[in-house]
Amino acid sequence: MRGRTWLGAALVLGAQLRALWLAAAVEVHTAKEVVAVNGTNQRLKCTFSSSSPVSQQLSVSWNFQPEDLSAHEPVFYYLKEPYKPPSGRFKERVTWDGNIERNDVSIIIWNLQPSDNGTFTCQVTNWPDVYGTIGEVRLRVVQKVNFSEIHFLAVAIGSASVLMIIVVTAVIICRQRRRRARDKRLEVADTEW
After folding, report:
1. Exposed, middle or buried, 74 (CB in 10 Å: 0-12/13-18/19+)?
2. Residues 133, 119: Cα–Cα separation, whole Å
3. Element (DSSP H or E) covering residue 174
4. CA dihedral defined by 101, 104, 107, 108, rounded to 10 degrees?
5. What is the pLDDT of residues 132-187, one digit of tens each?
6. How many CB atoms lie within 10 A of CB 44?
7. CATH of domain 21-142
8. What residue spans define the domains of the chain?
9. With contact defined as beta carbons under 8 Å apart, do 97 and 86 qualify?
10. Residue pLDDT, tens place only, 51-108
11. pTM listed for this prediction
């Protein structure tokens, strides 16, 4: 009987420790999708929550997976201070914009290009909370509308509006002339009788 009691107690203790371990994990929060205009700068927001206070060993790593699913690329790393990437597509194009005291580990990507389309991941470890979720942000870079396209669209809409006004005015004038002519004919016919 004692063996079964110990086994039961060990199973219960294991389940409780597992529940505590899951509750102690770091939770990372990001926007699921961000749309930005080509050539602009975009803040990729990432915040976290942890059951432990922020430690000196807190680390943050941002990575990038292009849409063509080629290899992951490091974007940014933080451990006690921000570290920019020494090489790669984001060299000189990424800036730390977080505040550790506010559980914010966001970055800014400068001068976005269509080649930046893909998924950015934000991972936070806060000792002793070393496990947790990984935040993902899908970035879509769209082409901005050129002034000539806007100008062409405005001219087309304006021309169509002016043409409609001219047609409506012409129809109204024609109807009024016909009505006057008919009224005049009726007057002449009445005077002849």
Report:
1. middle
2. 15
3. helix 147-192
4. -100
5. 789 999 999 998 755 666 677 778 888 889 999 999 999 999 999 999 988 888 88
6. 23
7. 2.60.40.10
8. 21-142, 145-192
9. no
10. 888 888 899 999 999 988 778 899 999 999 999 888 888 999 999 999 998 999 999 9
11. 0.62
